[in-house]
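REVIEWER CHECKLIST
Item 1: Sequence provided? yes
Item 2: Single chain? yes
Item 3: Sequence as submitted:
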Amino acid sequence: MKVVDVFKFRSPEIKALHLTWIAFFITFYVWFNMAPLATSMLRSVDWLTQDDIRLFAICNVALTIPARIIVGMALDRFGPRRVFSILMILMALPALAFAFGNNMTQLLISRLVLSSVGASFVVGIHMTALWFRPRDIGFAEGFYAGWGNFGSAAAAMTLPTIALTLFGGEDGWRWAMAVSALVMAGYGVFYWFAITDGPHATSHKRTRNAMAMEVSSWGDMIKLIICTLPLVGVLALLVWRIEQMGYLSTTGATILYLVIGGIVLYQVVQIFRVNVPILKKGVPKDDKYHFNSVIALNSTYFANFGAELAVVSMLPMFFEQTWGLGAAAAGAIAASFAFVNLVARPMGGLVSDRMGNRRFVMLCYMFGIGIGFVLMGLLDSNWPLIVAIAITIFTSFFVQGSEGATFGIIPSIKRRITGQISGMAGAYGNVGAVVYLTIFTFVTPTQFFFIIAAGAFLSWLICLLLLKEPEGAFAEDYHVSSVDRIIEEEDLKRERQKAWAR
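Item 4: Structure as written out by the authors:
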C-alpha cells in the first residue's frame, strides 16, 4: 500500500478507513475537551482548584481501562460497526453532563464515565484490520490512529477559540463541550448505516468465547492472569489518590476496594472457565500463538500511549506556566505533541510494513522515546521557546511512531482474538496514563518527564527479551487455523437453521 492510495475514495477499504478515522477523531476531540479549557473552567467556577483539575485528568483516563477490555470482548462477538456506533451515542450523555455540571460530584462522576469513550480506539483498530491485508495493515492502522488521535490536538487548538470567540462569556467553555458531544452522537447514528464489518460477510471472525482471551498453554494462562491484574488493580490506585485528596471517605474507599477485588476475582474465574476446557482438550499446533509478544506489546503501549495521554493532559498548563503564555497560545503549542500524529503514526506503520522486520522497528522507536523524554526533562524557562517546541515535536515523533508500530504487529498475532489483544494493549496504555498522572500529582514536570523516559527504556528491554516477529506478518492474507474453520462452519450451520426456522 502506498501513501497515495488514501486518496482513492472510491475504493471500499479506503472509504472504510476514512469513515473510521473520522469517528475516532470525534471521540478523541470529546475525550480531551477539558485540558485546553482547564484555565477557563478555573476562572468561571470559583470553587474549582488546580488539584480538582488534576483529579479530573486522572478520572479522564480511569474507566477507559475496563472499558477497553469490555469493548474488546464485545468486538469479537458483535463486530466493530455496532460497538462503535453505540459507544459514540452513549458517551455523549456524560459529555453533556460534564459540560453543564454545577457541583463537584456531577463533574467528577460524569468525567469518570466519559473516560470510557477512550475505548473507541480499539474499535477502529479492529475495523481497520477487517478491511486490510497483513502486508498493508501497518500503514492502514497507523493512518487511522494518527489522524484519529489528532482529535486531541484539534481540541487543544480550537476549543479555547470556540469557547472565547464563538460563545463567549463565563459559560463559553460549557457550550463548546456540549456542541462536541452532540456532533459525536450524530456521527454515531451515521456510522451505523455507512459501513459494514469488512468487505465480506465472513470477514469478522467470531471467537469461541468472548468472556476471556484464549491462550495456547497452561503457562500462558498464568501469564494472562498476571497481565489482567494491573488492568483492574490500577483502579485501586485511583481510589487511593482520590481518598488522599479528600474527595472520598475511608468507608467509601473500602467499598470501592472490595468492588475492585470482586472484579479481579471475576476476571480470573472467566479466564479459567474459558481456557481450562480448551487446554485439557489440547490446542492444535496451527491455532497456537506467542503470548510473550502480547506481554511485550502491552509494555510498549503502557510506555508510549500512556505517556501521550499523560503528557497531553498536562502539556498546555506546562507551557502556560513555564513560559508565561496565554491559554490559547499554550494550547496551540502543546497541540504540537499530538499534531505530529498526522505524519508520525502512519509513518510508524508504513516503516513497519516496508522494513520487513516489525520487531526491529519497534525497538528503535521505544529507544527514541526514552531519549526524547530525557530532553524534555531538561526544559525550563531558560530554554528558548522555539527549541522547547522542537524537542516536543521530536519526542512526539517517536511516541506516535511507536504506537503505529505496536498496532502494525497486533493484528498478525492471532486473527480471531484481535479485538481482545487490542483491548488489552490499549488498556495498558490507559494503565500507563493513570500511573503517570498519579505520579504527576507528587512531582515536578521535570521529574515527570524523566520518569516517563525510564518507562520507555524499560519497555525497550522487555521487547528485546520477549517480542517475536509474527509469522505471516507480511502475507497476502491472515492465517486461518483449523479452529477458525470449525467456528465458521458452526456459524454457517446456525444461519442455515435460522433460515429454515423462518
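Item 5: Key structural point noted by reviewer: The first helix runs from residue 12 to 31.
Item 6: Recommendation: ____
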